[in-house]
Amino acid sequence: MSVNLRTKYLGKTNLSKKNRPYKKQLDYNLNGKRVRETIKEVTFNPTDSKEIRKQKDRLVENIRAKLEIELGNAKNGLVSRQLQKANFILYFEKLGNKKEEKTKTAWDNTLKHLITFQGKKISFENISSTWVENFIEYLKNQGLANNSIVTYINKVNATLNHAIKEKIIVDNPIRYINRPKKEETEIVFLTKEEIQIIINTEFWDNEAKNAFLFSCYSGLRASDIKDLKWSNIKDNRIQLMQNKTKNAVYIPLNNNAKNILEKQKHNEDFVFKLSEHISSMNRTVKKLIKLAGINKKVHFHCARHTFATLLVTSGVNVFTISKLMGHKDIKSTLVYAKVIDEEKQKAVDSMVNLEF
Description:
By secondary structure, the chain is mainly alpha-helical. Helix content is 50%, strand content 9%.
């Protein structure tokens, strides 16, 4: 596909063209439409010497030849020049707006930092390994926790990978840098005794309380509890497609879970009437835990941790637990076995030291 060069004169029109600066324009057809793209990087001035003019001509010719190759690639289904000039920030925002509530918060937070760091516009062709490294350094200077930085870079990485699929770019520059690694965080869970205390605690929101307790005995995530319908409960077990992983899970109901369901029979369609926002559910759970006098940083997801640790302490094998929780990778389940081993070690270490 041929690309022609046109001259665009600048400055006052009452002057002769000989005395006016000018830029070169790339003239080509794209998808049946004529495009004239000004080469902004190079300006020819009336005062330029013959040698300087030749240097500028060579720069312009290189740009023209490169575009001609890229247009040929686009015709063959490869990455196009026009797409590479698209706004990465806007693309990131549109992608984030399609995410579910639980993950959208992280996308929104990443977007805020991107805009603070870069502004509202940067083209894909200017996203380099150095740019990503500078963004990581910016995040570190904000005093953010390591795992928060990992989360934000993961969102940028996901966006660039998505852009590759849509043939906007051919490579992801994050591949070539040392990314910060996620650090293991403490898994907070409740003991049988603490669950009993919660059961005995009078609370103003029984829907939220029962939902949290049900998660302790089913392992369902907050998003799945929120969307749980009576139609998902058949033959004394829960049958549903997990919102996060899209995996189908089948969880037998134990007596504790059945007792909670008995208390929820006043609801018709959904088992629990809860807030649309998981952040609101977390705030309610924290109030419940505080009222119960439990000195732990508990949020709704801790109920899922509790379910797993209760099973481990009861001697259930990790493969069964993995299936019940809908884990894609057994490594996710093994974390709970490790936690219980650490608790056992703490118990042994707490014994009074005797002198021999």
